[in-house]
Amino acid sequence: MSSLKSNDVDTNPAPDPQAPITRKGFLMSLNTGTPMPIPEQNLFGRCRPVSEFEKLNRVGEGSYGIVYRARDTRSNEIVALKKVRMDQEKDGLPISGLREIMILKQCHHENIVRLREVVVGKSLDSIFLVMDFWEQDLASVLDNMSQPFTESEVKCITLQVLKALKYLHRAL
Ligand SMILES: Nc1ncnc2c1ncn2[C@@H]1O[C@H](COP(=O)(O)OP(=O)(O)OP(=O)(O)O)[C@@H](O)[C@H]1O
């Protein structure tokens, strides 16, 4: 069993807590308490590197991160790439980001955006969610509506939201 630590223990025995966390850290063995280097092939764990995605343009920003339209260079598909916000985090992935990943991973519903995978950058604080790209969400539909929705449009949208909510309450 091991835990992930940052900074180089040989040259810097008392790591600066303000220093950026890099993926070029070491693994601390919980059995022996000694540091072990991370093998090059395990640097990204089982996640693909974000360098396999070509960022095309920024599409929005929420409370927990910035969202880009991007191209998956392996499949050539257009996806949404959301960088998890790690502003003041010193203890790794924020709980909000972790919750979003755990919940989206369990969800399979036509009215809930699909989380395809999580990909990582070179530094430990760069974590991205790869999701299906949707041209519109309810917020942008509301922002761009030129005239009030008709009664049937309201019913249609409400029904989609209710379906997703009902699914979430049953699934989680
Ligand atoms: N899968 C997606 N496809 C296309 N655009 C997306 C996708 N996900 C998010 N966006 C765009 O990025 C914006 C920010 O999304 P995000 O999920 O981070 O926050 P939010 O849910 O809108 O807001 P908050 O997290 O603050 O409640 C959205 O308003 C939308 O315009």
According to CATH, the fold-level topology of the largest domain is Phosphorylase Kinase, domain 1
Broad shape: elongated
> How are the strands of the biggest sheet laid out side by side?
4-5-6-8-7
The percent of residues in helical segments reads: 10-25%
* Secondary structural class: alpha+beta
User: What CATH first level of the largest domain would be assigned?
Assistant: Alpha Beta
* Largest sheet report: 5 strands, antiparallel
Average pLDDT across residues? 82
What is the β-strand count? 8
Ligands in the model, by name, code or SMILES, are: adenosine-5'-triphosphate
Radius of gyration: 20 Å
Number of helices: 3
The CATH architecture of the largest domain: 2-Layer Sandwich
Taken as a percent bin, the fraction of beta residues is 25-35%
The N- and C-terminal alpha carbons lie at a distance of 30 Å
Order of helices and strands: EEEEEEHEEHH
Overall structural domain count: 2
CATH superfamily of the largest domain: Phosphorylase Kinase, domain 1
User: Uncertain runs with pLDDT below 50, 5 residues or more?
Assistant: 1-15
